[in-house]
Amino acid sequence: MSITVDLSGRTALITGASSGLGARFGRILAANGARVALGARRKDRLEALAAQIGSNASAIAMDVAREADVIAGFDAAQAAFGTVDTVIANAGIDGAGLMTEMSEEEIERTLAINLKGAILTAREGAKRMMAAGITNGRIVLVASITAFEPAPGLVAYAASKAGVVQAARSMAREWARKGICVNTISPGYIRTAINDEWFDTEPGRKQIARFPRKRLMEESGLDGPVLFLCSDAAEFVTGADFVLDDGQTL
């Protein structure tokens, strides 16, 4: 099913856009009229995606765990399309592994990309919106159902996503009078490059069988809510978390 929302005139920066959900977000925002700056570390993949989308897309190399990269990414987006008024902080890694076996470096990297990176991205976007006098800014951070559901084997990931939800609520309150709406989406399990191998294993298939609808979500299941949260129609929605999980947590 195709969902249409008018995003004409909007300039969006999307992190983690080289594959998976980020690439999907880039395509659907552009298809609905937005100019999209596609940010990630793998610029070759970004350039291929930008070429598919067309002239309203630009590839930007950035590592969200590094403040200098985030600032440079927004600089590049602004040079290409003007001030960013829409941000999707999507970059993330799963940090999978039993907690007793994870190294300090693995824990730190998961938190740096998933939590610190989301905060740095949202903060830089908000600073520029405020400086430009934008009063209809939209910031969407991608969390997860593991933010509030126990997730053995994903402890650092779950902690980072819980932090994303609370950071977003706090930023929403802090920037409420600036006209910037900050929200999170908490997707359920979707087959992506991060988890593809797991769901082909016997334990992975058993996990799917335990879901009420006995299936994984499709990426397209996030299209409508994301488009809405990036649009003018979301003027009165801020500090909210949208659980989009096909009933997996029921």
From TrEMBL:
Residues 10-188 form the Ketoreductase domain. GO terms for biological process: fatty acid biosynthetic process. GO terms for molecular function: oxidoreductase activity, acting on the CH-OH group of donors, NAD or NADP as acceptor; quinone binding. SUPFAM superfamilies: NAD(P)-binding Rossmann-fold domains. Keywords: Oxidoreductase. Belongs to the short-chain dehydrogenases/reductases (SDR) family. This is Short-chain dehydrogenase. It comes from Erythrobacter litoralis.
